[in-house]
């Protein structure tokens, strides 16, 4: 039964214009209107059919009545083509009033067997126009005016006397009353179905509202938990990095000693410890940087620097890493001139991209191309890192810059990787008011392109940034000298951390 009603509703909804279908209340009214006009004439035409059978002299009056009742079938197509629902509702009620009063005029007047159909007029007015007081007033007014006009014409005009015998009039009354009852029952059933559907929809909407409220609370809880996690990791930066730096520093000292003593076994083990320490530190740094960015605690320190010299220094420092896999690393282009950006983050982005290219390329070429492009909103710098490696499948482009994106990537198990590097590059580019994109084909290499303004938003004057640059250079020199002191520091039989602290104090 429900399946049949669903199919019936789909058929009826075909006639409803989109603007009416979008309004739930108007859609319900339009459905009742269409049910009445699509199926009502089948019931209503039983009256003209009975008149053809009972009236000994059928004539034009029955033809007019049958044509008026059949005219209701036109309304659904007019509604679909032109809309104007309220106007059609008024015209439909007027047509019904005409059919009823026309039959009453020729067949018995106020004692006509077709008079019970008058009861359907206020019923349809309620169904068609809903709770609108204005529309109800219009429909009832037209009914009242039509009834007064009919009564006046019937009392003052000449109307033909019906030649139907009494038994035929009784039979017509039975047919008319039965048809009117069936019509009212049909409309009541359709209205009950509409109300039931509305109640079910309201219940479902309330359930959705409860679910939506629960999801909103869960989302807020997740956001608070995520913010707390990010805030915790951002604050734990020092505590996580310090022991790792100690491990790396001591592994360097022990590695130098083992090398001096020609202890090949120890050198091999210590080199593995040293490499693992650097890898773990890199991973910790990436996780912490991502957490700081997500927590909004990553600061940007822009400074002015010679872009060409920065690129040359960066590429020279990474050539040894690229050559381990038999690759060549070259830098082309140039003309970056003086740029104003966060140098550390800019270097971090390009280092990650070049490391990726070196890791996924064997006996190939890695080309870093840097250019400066003029634009209406200022100059931009474009740095491309192109390799001749295995390439990236296009279906992975959409998720390439997501965190921990190694699912379905066979290269992750072959070359290693956690899926954090490119995600961090993306976020750092956004911090520097830039963007990163990729072009690649499988077995044809990949090209990552970084685009950002040549002069980022000022956070300090250029003179202040030069002073900061000088301070950073001095700090770097001090760091190099400190590492030399650590390397020459005497061994301690006590806590290794004491040796490290002692060496730092002596430095």
Model description:
By secondary structure, the chain is an alpha+beta fold. The chain folds into four domains: 2-211, no CATH class; 237-294; 303-459, Heat Shock Protein 90 (2-Layer Sandwich); 462-507. 66% of the residues lie in helices and 9% in strands. The protein has 18 helices and seven strands. The chain has helices spanning 2-13, 18-21, 24-44, 46-54, 60-70, 74-82, 85-106, 120-129, 133-156, 166-235, 237-260, 264-294, 307-323, 343-359, 410-415, 421-431, 462-488, 496-506; strands at residues 303-306, 328-333, 338-341, 365-373, 380-387, 435-440, 446-453. The chain has a five-stranded mixed β-sheet with strand order 2-4-5-7-6, covered by helices on one side. A hairpin with a 5-residue loop joins β6 (435-440) and β7. The longest helix has 70 residues, at 166-235. The radius of gyration is 43 Å and the shape is rod-shaped. The model is unreliable at 410-416, 458-475 and 481-507 (pLDDT under 50).
């Amino acid at each position: 039964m429900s399946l049949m009603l669903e199919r019936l509703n789909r058929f009826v909804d075909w006639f409803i214009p989109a603007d009416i279908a979008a309004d739930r209340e108007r859609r319900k009214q339009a459905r009742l209107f269409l049910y009445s006009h699509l199926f009502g004439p089948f019931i209503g035409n039983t009256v003209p059919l009975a008149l053809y059978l009972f009236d000994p002299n059928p004539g034009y009056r029955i033809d007019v009545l049958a044509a008026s009742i059949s005219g209701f079938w036109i309304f659904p197509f007019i509604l679909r083509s032109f809309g104007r629902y309220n106007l059609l509702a008024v015209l439909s009620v007027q047509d019904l009033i005409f059919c009823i009063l026309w039959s009453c005029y020729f067949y018995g007047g106020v004692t006509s067997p077709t008079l019970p159909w008058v009861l359907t007029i206020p019923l349809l007015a309620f169904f068609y126009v809903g709770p609108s007081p204005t529309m109800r007033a219009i429909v009832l007014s037209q009914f009242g005016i039509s009834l007064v006009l009919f009564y006046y014409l019937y009392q003052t005009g000449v109307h033909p006397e019906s030649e139907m015998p009494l038994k035929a009039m009784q039979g017509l009354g039975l047919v008319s009353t039965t048809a009117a009852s069936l019509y009212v029952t049909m409309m009541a059933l359709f209205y009950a179905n509409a109300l039931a559907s509305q109640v079910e929809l309201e219940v479902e909407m309330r359930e959705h509202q409860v679910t939506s409220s629960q999801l909103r609370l869960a989302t807020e809880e997740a956001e608070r938990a995520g913010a707390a996690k990010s805030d915790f990791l951002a604050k734990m930066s020092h505590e996580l990095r310090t022991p790792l730096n100690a491990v790396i520093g001591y592994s360097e000292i022990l590695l130098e000693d083992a090398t001096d003593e020609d202890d090949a076994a120890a050198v091999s083990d210590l080199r593995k410890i040293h490499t693992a320490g650097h890898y773990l530190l890199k991973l910790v740094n990436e996780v912490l940087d991502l957490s700081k960015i997500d927590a909004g605690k990553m600061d940007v320190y822009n400074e002015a620097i010679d872009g060409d010299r920065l690129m040359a220094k960066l590429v020279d420092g990474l050539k040894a890493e690229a050559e381990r896999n038999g690759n060549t690393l070259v830098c082309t282009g140039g003309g970056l001139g003086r740029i104003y950006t966060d140098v550390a983050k800019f270097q971090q982005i390009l280092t990650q991209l070049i490391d990726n290219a070196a890791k996924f390329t064997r006996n190939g070429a890695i080309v870093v191309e840097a250019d400066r492009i003029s634009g209406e909103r200022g100059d931009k710098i474009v740095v491309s890192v192109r390799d001749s490696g295995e390439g990236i499948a296009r279906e992975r482009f959409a998720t390439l810059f997501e965190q921990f994106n190694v699912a379905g990537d066979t290269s992750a198990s072959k070359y290693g990787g956690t899926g954090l590097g490119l995600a961090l590059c993306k976020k750092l580019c956004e911090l520097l008011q830039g963007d990163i994109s990729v072009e690649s084909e499988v077995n044809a290499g990949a090209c990552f392109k970084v685009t950002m303004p040549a002069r980022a938003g000022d956070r300090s004057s250029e003179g202040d940034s030069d002073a900061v640059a000088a301070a950073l250079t001095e700090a770097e020199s001090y760091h190099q000298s400190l590492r030399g002191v650590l390397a020459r520091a005497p061994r301690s039989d006590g806590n290794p951390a004491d040796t490290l602290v002692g060496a730092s104090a002596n430095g």
